[in-house]
Design goal:
By secondary structure, this protein is mainly α. 60% of the residues lie in helices and 0% in strands. Helix 2 runs antiparallel to helix 7. The relative contact order is 0.14.
Length: 136
């Protein structure tokens, strides 16, 4: 049985190695237009079934969609994650916004959690809260 993530930490703070960067990107994509509380339930299930990018690409799209269905937009979300995953395997690891489906939030989040750099003009309220707590 997989356990949901705890509520008082950001999704990004709870993603475990190995393949932490890929899981981070998947998490960011799942957070788009949905409640983080739901994402914290779904991600552990998704990563238990698909622990790395190659396993995700070998997986059946219909199964992935069933796992992602509670988040809404499961057809679009699963295809975007698949395309991002294909690109991730060739990615140089520098600019997260080069990956399909990763926008400003994902890029800012990647900079903060993997490069220990706070980009200027962070707009997401949860990232701002995390940054404020980091600086204390």
């Amino acid at each position: 049985m997989t356990r949901a993530m705890v509520d008082d930490l950001m999704v990004q703070q709870q993603i475990k190695a190995p393949h932490k960067k890929w899981k981070h990107m998947v998490g960011v994509m799942c957070l788009n237009l949905t409640y983080r509380k739901h994402v914290k339930i779904i991600l552990p299930k998704l990563f238990a079934r698909y622990p790395n990018p190659k396993a995700y690409l070998r997986g059946r799209l219909k199964t992935q969609q069933q796992i992602l269905k509670p988040l809404g937009m499961w057809e679009v979300r699963s295809r975007r994650i698949r395309k991002m995953t294909e690109e991730y395997l060739r990615w140089d690891g520098r600019d997260a916004s080069e990956l399909h489906g990763i926008g400003k939030y994902g890029s800012d989040s990647y900079q903060i959690f993997f490069n220990n750099f706070v980009p200027p003009n962070v707009q997401d309220k949860e990232l701002k809260k995390y940054i404020d707590n980091m600086c204390r």
